[in-house]
Amino acid sequence: MAIQIDRQEEETEMRRSKRQRSEQKGPMQDVYNDDTATSSMNRTLRYYSRREIALHNTEGSAWIVAGDDVYDVTEYMHQHPAGKAPILKRTGGAVDCTQDLMFHSKRGQSMWREKCLIGRVTNNERLNGRPVEKPWWAFWDLQC
Ligand code: HEM
């Protein structure tokens, strides 16, 4: 019992110091503690697998990927100065939008991050940003 309580305290302490480290690093370098991180806009960021990102390739739910970052542009695309068409062509993580991101003004680039950033790509299997429990016999299916 005592050991269990110690472990809990240890874990809480680890989380606290990780959070402090991420605060020190500042909002542009989000540190992903365990499963999540907090964006500069105080939004919770998660890891998403390529398989999950690929499901968001419609006007109803449109995600784009630039480098390792995942952006939900579903709402923003309707107010995008160049319209929604160029965004819709790149949804579902089919294209790496790093070049597109760089093309934007500094203000545009921070809008990507502030309005749309939802997390980061991972190679681990995930659904709704959470790890997926796999049956023991599927251990070899590591990639999407
Ligand atoms: C991969 C997806 C995207 C593509 C291909 C794209 C493309 C473009 C293009 C071609 C323009 C120029 C419009 C013009 O001059 O008439 C533009 C402007 C702009 N876009 Fe995007 N865009 C994308 C995603 C986004 C996102 C996610 C945001 C913000 C959340 C955004 C914000 C803006 C803003 C603010 C402008 C005005 C010019 C500037 O500040 O750079 N765009 N975009």
Descriptive account of the structure:
This protein has helices spanning about 1-25, 50-55, 85-90, 100-105, 105-115; strands spanning about 35-40, 45-50, 65, 70, 115-120, 125, 130. With about 140 residues, it is an alpha+beta fold. It has one domain: Flavocytochrome B2, Chain A, domain 1 (Roll). The protein has a five-stranded mixed sheet with strand order 1-2-5-4-3. A hairpin with a 2-residue loop joins β3 (about 65) and β4 (about 70). Protoporphyrin IX containing FE binds next to α3 and α5.
Keywords:
35% helix, 5 helices, 7 strands, Flavocytochrome B2, Chain A, domain 1, binds protoporphyrin IX containing FE, two-stranded antiparallel ribbon, 144 residues, alpha+beta
TL;DR?
This protein has 144 residues and is of the alpha+beta class. 35% of the residues lie in helices and 19% in strands.
Task: Give the SSE map.
Blueprint: H1 2-25, E1 36-38, E2 44-49, H2 50-54, E3 63-66, E4 69-72, H3 85-88, H4 98-103, H5 106-116, E5 117-122, E6 126-127, E7 130-131
Parallel strand pairs: 2-5
Antiparallel strand pairs: 1-2, 3-4, 4-5, 6-7
The share of residues in extended strands comes to 15-25%
Shape: globular
> Helix fraction?
25-40%
Query: What is the CATH C-level name?
Result: Alpha Beta
Identify every distinct bound molecule in the structure, by name, code or SMILES. Answer: protoporphyrin IX containing FE
CATH architectural arrangement: Roll
Radius of gyration: 18 Å
Total domains: 1
Q: Summarize the main sheet.
A: 5 strands, mixed
Provide the spatial order of strands within the biggest beta sheet.
Answer: 1-2-5-4-3
List the uncertain runs. Answer: 21-31
* Quaternary assembly: single chain
CATH topology: Flavocytochrome B2, Chain A, domain 1
